[in-house]
Amino acid sequence: MPYLDRAGTRIYYEVAGEGDQPPLLLSHGFSASAAMWRPNVAALAAHRKVITWDLRGHGRSDSPDDPAQYRHAACVADMAALLDAAGTERAVVGGLSLGGFLSLAFALDRPEQVEALVLCDTGPGFRSDQARQRWNDRALATAARLERDGLAALGGAPGSPDYGHRSARGLALASRGMLAQQDGRVIEGLASVNVPALVLVGERDEPFLAAAGYIAAKIPGAVQVVIPDAGHVSNVDQPDQFNQSVLAFLGRLR
User: What is the pLDDT of residue 161?
Assistant: First the structure.
């Protein structure tokens, strides 16, 4: 199994496919892992490399004890290191939920490395301090449940995907450091994104429908697709429609 050593913290990743097109780097949502992309990788990797990975504290990646290692900047640096490991300077950068937010952060911090964006069931953060605090209160409550109840706090129903988590503490630290937000930098930077962007959202993902519409309206030239009969994990709920939408977008980049 491939791991990337980040100053003693091992980051798990997978690479599928080949091709001379810029690879697709996909980042998962909070409390998921690279395994969430299993319904999509084979189709998306038909003509290019697809890189999936486990964020710090998630899945098979390590869970360092230092809370500072879960900052957004650390995740952005991990993403850049993954591109280096794949032997590429630029990629189509995408993700779902938290992974989509981190993809936007990456595009703002390292625009020279971004060929295009694929943003799935995600939001851009909050301009209002009050709205951000309400979001952060929920993130902190999730962290507290993980510390109290362990991985059972995730509440997986029978038949739920096995994301391979090893550390409830790692997820709690990720909730405090990655899921919580410190400022409005991402939402304020949307208009400066100057690469093609696909904004996908499930039609039943009510908490994120408005956020997806906002992102699509603010990023110049962004394309929005609403996937019928899909919820928050639109790539899993309707994988064929999701894959077709992403492949059609990627095909227009050539």
Answer: 74
Q: In the chain, what is the greatest distance between 2 CA atoms, to the nearest angstrom?
A: 50
> For 210, phi and psi rounded to 5 degrees?
-65, -40
Strand 9-16: give its sheet, edge to edge.
3-6, 9-16, 50-53, 24-27, 91-96, 114-120, 197-202, 223-227
The residue ranges of every structural domain in the chain are 3-125+183-251
Separation CA 145–CA 140 (nearest Å): 9
Distance CA 174, CA 224 (A): 29
Fold of 3-125+183-251: Rossmann fold (3.40.50)
Nearest to 211 by CA among 100, 133, 129, 94: 100
Report the mean per-residue pLDDT for the chain: 95
Q: Which residue has tokens 């993403």?
A: 79
Residues 135 and 126: beta-carbon distance below 8 Å: yes
- Span 28-54, mean pLDDT? 97
